[in-house]
Design a protein that fits this description.
Blueprint: H1 9-16, E1 22-28, E2 34-37, H2 53-64, E3 69-72, E4 77-80, E5 83-85, E6 89-92, E7 98-103, H3 109-121, E8 126-133, E9 136-142
Parallel strand pairs: 7-8
Antiparallel strand pairs: 1-2, 3-6, 4-5, 6-7, 8-9
């Protein structure tokens, strides 16, 4: 069986679907309740109006690298009760890695803790903290 990292987007969508949450026709649980099948939605996010100047500049940089998919504030990770982390930019790079990039001008303690917890809880994603480095970008990978 192929790892999801080794799948093309077409293979991923064929295996896991690309619709929204909807009931499976006729599916019932042992208790007789209708089960809900949740499918991953692979539509590109276009919520660029919510980004600041630094985040927009990094988004342009990511798009210039021609990723197979890019989303803006498109995925939220649940870290605990009433605690969530939403990366600024989420994309699939040319090696099919899922990159969750959080663009920072400066880092607060709670933001640093959240991204570290997310990296531990969701090791299948690559979490990066991105800062501007003169005219380029410094992308620091957060290890689980």
């Amino acid at each position: 069986m192929k790892s999801f990292r080794d799948m093309s987007m077409a293979e991923f969508n064929a295996r896991f679907g690309n619709g929204s949450a909807k009931p499976s026709p006729g599916a019932t649980s042992p208790a007789g309740r209708q089960e809900i099948a949740v499918h991953w939605q692979s539509t590109e996010s276009t919520d660029e109006s919510s980004l600041n100047k630094t985040e927009k500049a990094y988004l342009d940089y990511v798009k210039a690298r021609n990723p197979s998919w890019v989303g803006v504030h498109s995925l939220t990770f649940k870290l605990g009760h009433d605690c969530r982390f939403t990366p600024d930019i989420f994309f699939i790079d040319d090696t099919r890695r899922f990159i969750a990039a959080d663009v920072k001008g400066f880092m607060r303690d709670d933001a640093k803790a959240k991204i570290q917890v997310a990296a531990r809880l969701y090791p299948m994603f690559t979490f990066t903290i991105v800062t501007r480095n003169g005219t380029g970008w410094h992308e620091r990978v957060v290890r689980p």
